[in-house]
Structures are given as C-alpha cells and as structure tokens.
Amino acid sequence: MDHVSKYLTEDIKLSSYEDKLFKSDLMFKDHMLVWFISGETKIIQADATYEFKAGDIFLIPRNQLATIINYPKHGLPHKTVVMHLSTERLKLFYEQLQIQKIPPTGSKIFTFRNHPLLESCLSSLIPYFYVEGSFPESLASLKITEAISILRFIDPQVDAVLANFDVPGKIDLLNFMERNFMFNMSLERLGYLTGRSLSTFNRDFKRLFNTSPKKWLLEKRLELAYYHLTEKQKKPTEVYLEVGFEDLSHFSFSFKKKYGLSPNQLRSAVV
Question: What element of type H or E holds 179?
Fold first, then answer.
C-alpha cells in the first residue's frame, strides 16, 4: 500500500492512499474533521453506514468505533485534508466562551457535504503543504480555531460533542459487545471504551459469555457473514471486511471450518 501523509503540524495533515483499497478499524482519540479532495470512503459504525466522495466534509467524534474503507476513484488517489480537534485545544477554546455544559446527543457523524465556509477554510491549507520550512504553530492554531467557529456557526448542536471532555464510564458490556463485535480493536481499547481495565474486561467478559473474547468474536463475525451471504446475497469480497476480517483467505478458511462450505459455495447454493 502506497500511503503518504504530509504534516503541517501533528494536528493537520494531507493524507493520500494510492493503492486500490485500504481498510482499518479505528477509534480516534481526537475529533476528526475531514475534507475529501478525491477518492471515496465508506464508514461503518454499529448503527449506521456512511459513504463520502470528493468534495464532502465530515466530522467524526472521538472514542467511536468505526470500520473505514478508503478507495481511490476515477484514476485519482484517495486524498483528504484531515484536522485533529484535540481535547486540549477544545478546552482552551470553550474556556473563553464559558458555555453551559450540554448533554451528549449521541455518536453520530456530522456531515457537511461541500459547505462553502468549511471548504474555504480547509482548502486554504493546501498551498502550505508544498512550501518548505515549518508551519507556524500560531497559524495552525488560527486555522483550527477558524474551523471550530465555522462548525458551531453551521450546526450549534456540535457543541454537545466538541465541549464534552468526559472519559468513557463503565457501561453494559453485553450490549456494547453485541453492537460492536465487527470492529478489530485491541482488548485494551475495548476495555477503555467500556470503562474497564484489561483485567476487569476479561473477567467480566468470561462471566457474561462463558468463553474467551477471541472465540466469541470469531463466532459472531462468522454468523454475521452467513447472514449477509444468505439473506442479503452479498459477495464474499463485499462481506469479509465489513464483518471484521482483515484477509479474504482467512475469512474463507474460518467460514468453511464452521459451516462446511466456503463462502462462494454457500452463496452459489442460495442464489
């Protein structure tokens, strides 16, 4: 995979994927504001799937599990400008406003399509990626502050996300795992998102599911793949990434071991 990232600062980068496809399961520690220059992306969360193309702009909140599949398109790479809205910067921004704390409204991705104000803000960064020398932190701070101000102007509800600095508290592990088993996260990350240490996560998981996380996750992903192949009549190449596998051959091997048929054989039998 030919991936190139140019950084103005640790919070602002130009990202480009030249390969046919890149898939990752991520949980961002910062809110991410993304502007598409070219290519397409599919973002799969527990409750929704989003598709973005050239010109689109979106904000994905921090601490949210997502499968992200990036595609080049029309002979052009998957290229984006990405701005990290870190907790530290946001605290400084909101301290000056002294707004009343707003209850969180959920974990939705905010979509802005090609809003002219945001596009103008983010596109103005492009020339700096090709100028030699370091990018002044003072200028980076101004550009990030401008982006936050525009987001608040476009959608005041964004305050409920950007001004929320809470860390994940202990939540219902059974419900969380049933909703998020398709994401390839380390057990440490899963523990963090459910408000648990790794040892507490493993202990609670064993008590609830009477098996190890590894075995349970494999079973759940294969069951979801079976549903997609039989009920949705999807192709194996469309399924394996979305249910949590990284490799098609590993998916096919595991699927045949469980069901006695390869994904292609099962699909042929039901089509």
Answer: helix 173-180
